[in-house]
Amino acid sequence: MNWFKRLKISKYAIPAKPFVDRKIELLKIPFAKYDQATLKGFIPLTGIDDNVCSIQRAGQSLHYEFLCFSLVILSLIFGLFYYTAFEEQQLNHYKKIKAQVTLAKKKYGEHYYLLPTLPENMAFARYVDDEKTRSFWTELHYRYSYSEHKLTYQILDILMFLLLLICFSLPFYLYYFHPLPPPLFIDRKRQIIFTWHKGNVFVSRYSQVNMFQYDYKIAETKLITALGLYTQDKNQKLLQYLFRPNVLISLNETDIRKKALAPYIFMVQYLCNGKEAIAESCYGLIKPSRFWREERKPGDFDEQMARILAALDAGETAPSPSLATKSSSLSAYLSHTYLIDAEKALLEMPMKPKNRRELKAFAPLKSINDRYCVLRSRRPVLRFSLLFLALLLCIFVFNHNVENYDRTKGWEEPEILKDVQSVRIENGDNFHLRDDLSPSLDGLKFINGLGLNVDDPLPDWAYLYYRLHYHYLGENNYTVSDYAEKFWMFLFFIPFILYFGFFWREHLTVIDRERQIIFTWGLFQVHATRYSQVKFNYWNEHFPRQIPVGIKLFNCHISPKALQWYVGLFPQWQWKKWRWRKRPAQIEICSFIVKFLVHGKDAVSEVDFERPEGYIWSHTRQPTDTESTIKDTLEKQDSHLATEEADNS
Questions:
Q1: Mind listing the pLDDT tens digit for each residue in 277-293?
Q2: Which of 231, 226, 269 is nearest to 246 (CA)?
Q3: Could you tell me the keywords of this UniProt record (predicted)?
């Protein structure tokens, strides 16, 4: 399943709860009865009658139309800028071409293009001759074959062509050919909610539908993010997948409660009170204007639905969440649970105490003793990726500039040596010792003083000195700024390489066994939580499998009343002795933390260990007010959780 088709939940979502639990709350929210005109303007609704109501799923609304319009506008803007730049470059190239044609006529005559001995560097002049207008095809030939920046032009033109192709073809595909997901159908008579996707039926009774909601409140309400419906796999086992109705968007906090919950209020009102409570008349189902965009109902739709409902009536449920590290190709979403709830499973995982060598190979570990365990919470792979990218760009820019330099030198060097030979014939071999010659020959006197023959190569240092201090053919005068302009991009990446290689700072996560807390710090912020209240994030491939990806800690530094979650990700790879070491699984790191907190250092390590600190593994310095901030954070966390428990009760 492609990434844009995955049914995901925000990282702030909490585990599922029965949708029926919010029945009374949703029924209390005022909901005006819709007439025919209002039903047409109610975007989530696609159809309603006395028996069935259909609600759009996320992605079935105006999102694709907005995306198509944005891509077309973006492509037009890029195309306009690129056309302007192309016209300017074409004008500059035309001037250079005419100058080179004039130079070729001056040296080889009017019919220079007929000479078989024409230098290779002037071969492009054969194709242009005395063109009076700027030809598009002449520009392309010069641009990709003889320009000093031909490699850059080729790459940029290809990238721009691909960008414009994508920006024009993707909206065309989305608007005309992308299949629309079928809506969520609510059957009032049977009290079920169902839909289908790629031949699979997803259904659940209203009393068995699970809901996922945000872990924080907006306008004194926890917003629902998705509903869980059931299907069966190849082994006839129940699996639960997430489906999100199309939710109206509002930036007004006073109105967001009503609009964000509108589809769910509509569904509950219809299931409990019928069509008469929400609509004055029936409203026909909106079908795709192009039949090939409609996803057909599976041929065995009734059989699949009967099997799933029979399994639900028999008391079968989807497997409860359990820890695993093996990934799957099924839909994934991000959720979290309390670390202490998984304590039993994590403690049962086999893990022998590590010796010094194993601790050194354990990439996330910074240090460990009887009280503290310090973990590195930023992935080294990010640093190495950025370092590799900076090096790659630096090498590319440097190679491109060197190629331009070699091409320019190959063009100018024979002409310089020929001019030196001509002056030798006219004024003698030692004309560089004479003081009565014209100052315009000072550059040639410098070259002649090197004692080179016509066939000898000109040293790079001499060629650069000549370009910096003397005129070339009476046309160009080069300065140091010319070379600085050519190599500034190469020099631009040097600070990034130094930073990623030697001054990259890592964030540390500290596990304090004595106080049973976990805390970390970043830029002017401290995050801390008690072990009993720490949550860890995990990717649900489906309910039987969960992949931990990090822990969640509280933070109240930004505002005295603000409580925010901080997601601490662990490193996955370690670069050691010019090879990648095997990565520690995320579940292994969670088990390491729990065993240290519950059983102490002896359960995970045979010795005290501290990784040597240097430029490469330097970390962010601990703030001076860490302890006071931790104390304040824990107090506010306790107050927040007490208030939340009171609200839930």
A1: 888 778 775 565 566 66
A2: 226
A3: Membrane, Transmembrane, Transmembrane helix
Contact 110, 123 (CB under 8 A): no
pLDDT in tens, 331-387: 333 455 677 877 887 888 888 999 999 898 887 888 999 999 998 765 555 667 777
The residue type found at 469 is: H
What is the structure's pLDDT at 289? Answer: 56
Give the whole-angstrom CA distance, residue 606 versus residue 478: 68
Are 336 and 535 in contact, with CB atoms under 8 Å apart? Answer: yes
Domain count, the chain: 4
**415 shares a domain with 286:** no
Residue type, 69: F
CB 542 within 8 A of CB 319: no
Q: Which long-range contacts (CB under 8 A, 24 or more apart) does 399-404 make?
A: 400/149, 400/151, 400/152, 401/486, 401/487, 401/490, 403/151, 404/148, 404/149, 404/486
Q: How far is CA 190 from CA 20, 45, 272, 284, in A?
A: 16, 20, 12, 20
Nearest-angstrom CA–CA distance, 147 and 92? 11
Domain that holds residue 404: 385-489
Q: Judge whether 58 and 157 are in contact, CB under 8 Å.
A: no
d(CA 387, CA 395): 12
Residue 326 domain-assigned (yes or no): no
450 phi, psi to nearest 5 deg? -80, -15
Q: Token pair for residue 283?
A: 């409203």
Angstrom distances, CA of residue 405 to CA of 36, 402, 418, 447, 517:
73, 5, 20, 19, 61
**Taken in order 115, 118, 122, 123, is the CA torsion positive or negative?**
positive
Count of residues making up the chain: 649
For residue 83, give the 3-state DSSP assignment: helix
Q: Is residue 55 in some structural domain?
A: yes
Residues 601 and 616 in one domain: yes
Same domain for 483 and 517, yes or no, is: no
Q: What letter does residue 584 receive in the DSSP assignment?
A: P
Euclidean distance between CA atoms 75 and 52, whole angstroms: 42
Same domain, residue pair 246 and 286: yes
The pLDDT tens digits of the residues spanning 574-594 come to 444 444 444 456 778 888 889
Final residue in a domain of this structure, among 176, 202, 236: 176
Q: For the chain, give me the number of helices (H) and strands (E)?
A: 17, 21
Q: How far apart are CA 43 and CA 283, in angstroms?
A: 13
Half-sphere exposure of 488 (CA within 13 A, CB side): 6
Q: What are phi and psi of 323, to 5 degrees?
A: -80, 140
Which structure tokens are listed for 547?
């992949």
CA 490 to chain CA centroid, Å, is 26
Structure tokens at 261: 């919950």
If asked whether residues 197 and 49 sit together in one domain, one would say yes
Q: Are residues 134 and 191 in the same domain?
A: no
Strand partners, 367: 374, 610
Last residue of a domain, which of 135, 154, 176?
A: 176
159 in the same domain as 140:
yes
Task: Print burial letters for 65-92: b (CB count within 10 Å at least 16), e (below 16).
Answer: eeebeebbeebeeeeeebeeebeeebee
Single pTM value for the model: 0.49
Domain membership of residue 345 (yes or no) is yes
Q: What is the pLDDT of residues 27-61, one digit of tens each?
A: 887 777 877 777 777 777 888 888 888 888 875 44
Single-letter residue type at 542: H
- 566 neighbors 554 (Cβ within 8 angstroms): yes
Quick one: 520 and 641 in the same domain? Answer: yes
What would the two tokens of residue 573 be? 């790879």
Instruction: List the beta bridge partners of residue 553.
Output: 566
